[in-house]
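re the bet — no i am not wrong, look at it urself. input seq straight from the record:
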Amino acid sequence: MAKRWFARVVHQLQIPEDIALHLPLVHLTGSCRARVENHRGIAEYTPELIRIESAEGLVVIRGRELMVKELARDDLICVGKILAVEFYDQPGSGRQGG
């Protein structure tokens, strides 16, 4: 309930939701680069899968030869062959085989 109220206030004040609510913001450059803003850390990191925690759950990047090229407090840059970007509401979701 409070979250909806806050979202309404943000909308009324015309503040970008991704900033005010710390929502993950993903910028893709083709299929070779992804920048994820407003992250809360990396939950899992392999050459085929990068699971990134956010205020809303997980952002999962699947691909080949994935690497975290840059990691800062609020954003990270992933490079490699990106095949999919997925969003999960619940932390712990998005893991293959489990």
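see?? The chain is about 15% helix and 55% strand. told u. also The chain has a mean pLDDT of 83. so pay up
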